[in-house]
Design goal:
Length: 171
């Protein structure tokens, strides 16, 4: 019986010794423990400077399709160096586009064309002409016929107006 008591006492002593060596933290000490630094939130901006308030929905190295704030789709085409090559859209009344570089944005270009008496609507494009100069290209109507209007984005002046004389004829 003495051996059972001795064994129990020895077990109790070893267990007490093991727990006595482990530090016991009080509540206040736990609060003082250094907090892990919070992870910084990574924000990926899916925007382009060419469509203010727009969100890129298709993003490739040479093409970006951007949903405008008005829920329209503007296509931006880039050259191999990432510079603007051309842009286009289908709803001139709602699309947003700003080429920067001191040129008129789409809304100002449309206003300039309308001020010149042009009736424009629908599709538009921003691209370089045969001489390598930037132009806005608008679709419009004149005397019931479809016309293509080219506007200088730096001055707001209509550069040319081409009427489709073959409209309605079979090809």
């Amino acid at each position: 019986m003495k051996s059972k008591i001795s064994t129990a006492a020895l077990f109790f002593a070893l267990t007490s010794l093991t727990y006595a060596q482990a530090p016991v933290l009080k509540e206040k000490e736990i609060e003082k423990a250094p907090a892990k630094p919070k992870a910084e939130k990574i924000v990926i901006e899916n925007k382009t400077p060419y469509v203010p308030g727009g969100v890129i929905v298709v993003d490739t190295p040479t093409q970006k399709k951007v949903k405008s704030a008005e829920n329209t789709l503007v296509e931006i085409f880039l050259d191999s160096k990432g510079g603007l090559e051309k842009a286009s859209g289908g709803l001139i009344e709602k699309d947003e586009f700003d080429p920067g570089q001191g040129m008129l944005n789409l809304k100002a270009a449309v206003a300039a064309a309308k001020k010149d008496g042009k009736e424009i609507s629908g599709q538009w494009a921003f691209e370089k002409n045969d001489r390598g100069n930037w132009v806005y290209e608008f679709e419009g109507k004149h005397e019931g016929k479809e016309v293509e209007i080219l506007l200088n984005p730096r001055t707001g002046r209509v550069m040319s107006e081409e009427t489709d004389d073959n409209e309605g004829e079979a090809e």
